[in-house]
Structures
1.
Amino acid sequence: MSGKKLIIGNWKMNGGIGHVELAKAIIEGVNGVNAKNVDVAICPPFTLLPLIGQVVAHGKVSFGAQDCHTAASGAHTGDISAAMIAEFGAKFVLVGHSERRANHNEASALIAQKARAALDAGLVPVICVGETEAERLSGDAVPIVLSQIAASLPIDCTPEQIVIAYEPVWAIGTGRVASTQDIEEMHKAIRDSLNSKFANAQIIPLLYGGSVNAANAEQILAVNNVDGALVGGASLKAPDFMDIISAAHSIVG
Ligand code: PGA
């Protein structure tokens, strides 16, 4: 995604009605920065989607959900479809986050179906991939992540329809960040593999996620082929999230 950065906040299972104030603070902050080359989105829990949809309508921030079902509707107690998410004006939906892969046994084939359901509902799936610590130590992180991507992309998707987030599992919520060399190596490998699949793969935003914070954002966002960040913990504090957005702004304007 040349020349633009995308910063997505993943609130995970955090936030009640009071967190609408957090969304408002982020919207106000983003409106004030005038960062025309930085796109910002927040992904609150499902319960906040209608409220966040209302406040986001007044600003330049978009929003998304953290998961969706593969079906558009039906007998799936407790699940939420992509169409339900889209109805509130959402733009994105995360699919295949490592916490869902681990906690709900989600495999890449299922992620591809969820991403397809997202596309069918007019949403942009943010397809998440990443190796575990054991996989990193085994030296196979790159082929493992590339095979996750190959199996998690829906058949017939096009580059303008998707976002990919590389999040090393061992870096999520731990305060440990991949080295810029490792991030660069992985993002280049991902880009190369996408280039062999698509004619215009350079437009696919490749986000890095895993303990991105105000202090390390600028360094990470400056890495080749890093088009943005998927931010967990630091997206729950408006000043920290704004610092990450400002870091992106300082790189691309
Ligand atoms: P973190 O989470 O920034 O708290 O490490 C990132 C994510 O899980 O998307």
Note: The mean pLDDT is 96.
2.
Amino acid sequence: MAAAVCPGSFDPPTNGHMDVIRRSFSLFDRVVVAVIRNLSKTPMFTSEERVGMLRSLFEGDPGIEVVSFDGLLVDFARSRNADVIVKGLRAVSDFDYELQMAQMNHNLSGIDTVFIPTSPEYAYLSSSLVKEVGRLGGTVEGLVPQEVARRMKERWSQ
Ligand code: PNS
């Protein structure tokens, strides 16, 4: 039973994240979506909210589990008996930093990172851009799952 960890901030989850998580699940028997609890910048959604949104998005997919974590990703991956870490790559610009993290994580634990190229239709998507577009009055429909778009609008109207 090969298991993968898909880590991220998911503030908020985008259609690009959904694509990478779903495609990970077509490669591995079990996928653990690992939501980092503490972000350096103030998040739009708390870790509980991010976990809640992802859980409802993957409801009915018994092989996909959503959990929050703190501390080193490799410690979390080991605690979940994960074989690999999966990361999406949108563009060459992602590669330098992702490679560095993959090598550090391997050096720390022996756990390898598998890169999945983001589908081209999501290559320009990032959580921070989605937040900026939405905050400035642009539409986020088609960029994030409908439920996430609804939660974002709700948050801005508060
Ligand atoms: O969605 P993001 O912000 O690109 O996710 C980054 C994340 C959570 C994958 C990364 O910050 C991470 O792995 N943090 C855990 C702390 C850690 O293990 N640091 C050493 C990495 S080499």
Note: The chain has six helices and five strands.
